[in-house]
Amino acid sequence: MAIPIIDLFAGPGGLGEGFAALRGKNGEPAFRIGVSVEKDPVAHKTLTLRAVFRQLKGKPSVRYYYQYIKQEISLDEFKAQPEVAAAFEHASKEALCIELGKADPAALDKAIRAALGTEQNWVLIGGPPCQAYSVAGRARRVKDVNFHADEKHFLYKEYLRIIREHKPAVFVMENVKGLLSSTHDGDPMFERILSDLSSPGGDNEYEIRSFVKRNKVGTELDPSDYVIEAEKYGIPQRRHRVILFGVRKDLALVKHDLLTLKPTKTTVRHAISDLPRLRSKLSKGDTLEKWREAVAKGPDYIKGWGTTGEDAMIEKATDYASRAARLSSYGNTFFKYTKARPKAGHLKRWVIDKNLGGYCQHVARSHMDSDLARYLFASCYAKVNNYSPRLHVFPPQLLPAHENVKDVNKDTTPFKDRFRVQCASEPSTTVVAHIAKDGHYYIHYDPTQCRSLTVREAARLQTFPDNYFFMGTRTEQYTQIGNAVPPLLANLLAKVVRKVIYEASGITSIERVRTQSSKTRRDLAHHS
Length: 528
Fold this sequence. Notes:
Layout: E1 3-8, H1 14-20, E2 31-38, H2 41-56, H3 62-69, H4 75-79, H5 82-94, E3 95-97, H6 105-116, E4 123-126, H7 135-140, H8 156-166, E5 170-176, E6 183-184, E7 187-188, H9 189-198, E8 206-209, E9 227-229, E10 240-248, H10 268-272, E11 281-282, H11 288-296, H12 310-324, E12 331-336, H13 346-351, E13 358-363, E14 366-367, H14 369-385, H15 455-461, H16 474-483, H17 487-504, H18 509-527
Parallel strand pairs: 1-2, 1-4, 2-3, 4-5, 11-14
Antiparallel strand pairs: 5-10, 6-7, 8-10, 9-10, 12-13
Helix pairs in contact: 1-17, 2-5, 12-14
């Protein structure tokens, strides 16, 4: 039987996706999501749709899902299919739109008990909201007298309540690295959370482990030992997050594997280079001709740069601007593969779905004329130097008209990297929810495209499969992606957790396969 999962603060479902996608040698799922909880109604719609996909996957009726995400049929037409309607009915019991900390917990407890049945060795996953802990969030609210009272400081206690009430065998809790330095009324939040999770109440006790560092006998882990640097494990993104691995004390003698370092880095190029090349749109009066004119003027903004490389950069920008004129499409609801599917690698094997046959949600944003020039310069500069330029490098004509960039050489000038190219030969910087506000931190490395990343490109950097469809407006889609845990990283965590659960249950992987195969044969006999 698949191991049950309860997913709290699920967002669009990145962490749950990684666990749910893990299969045994017999092809059966190692985990099943019993309940996932998310308060945001749009992210909840995404979560629900993914639950529907899991119900349909492997059945003929999954074709309706593909038709819907390609926008070949409407949502109403999709739901009108009997098999799809049944899948939505199941999903309504799995994906719950609940605001933890405010809703009556009795309904959630009832749903959890129904999902778990008599299973004792199950897994709790999730990441309480991180705005109160993140360094950027604290910086923005440094003068906010109400910050100390922000309920997000203590939403982890909702996670704690579920541990105390339902006693998972294992829990996996994710949060930002800023948690390590966060304080509340002078008390370090990380130590407080670690203590609470270790002894959540009643007769529960947990050993808090790391996925990347083993506890030495008689010593404690340092707080930094709980940080996972995603780019070291095959994720095309420098995403550093605290991930706690709680193991119930009665299972504490079971050892666990550590994540395996990847010998080579997975880059932005690996992640998105196969996606169709797009032009951006102009935010005012977009036409193809006006866009080409705006890009062609880009090199003029470099004049007066006053560096020894000025002429060479103007020449390079002019060359790329002329190449940009070959682009015409700014995206579509769906792109079919126009050539052989991308070469297999660990990331492409994870994201590509041959049954989908192409790419969804790959549409460029609109940008101002002046930003096209900035993107052209910045991507050209990054192509030459293999790093993104900071503001003090920009030609004077390309500096934004902000009061705080009058003197970009001052140490006090904030956000000197406000225009950031995601360099092709490196993992990306952290994809965060700010991507929903503008694309300045997420400039495409190809100078001919003069644009920021699309929803699908951002999803690729977060390792969401191409058949993962995000509901809502484009802004809401970006927000969901930025708030998520990379599913491929979650899948690596799931492999570690599965082995612990199997060993705790006294079941080897081979025995598990045999048990599942026997159950499958019994089920087939029952239905025949």
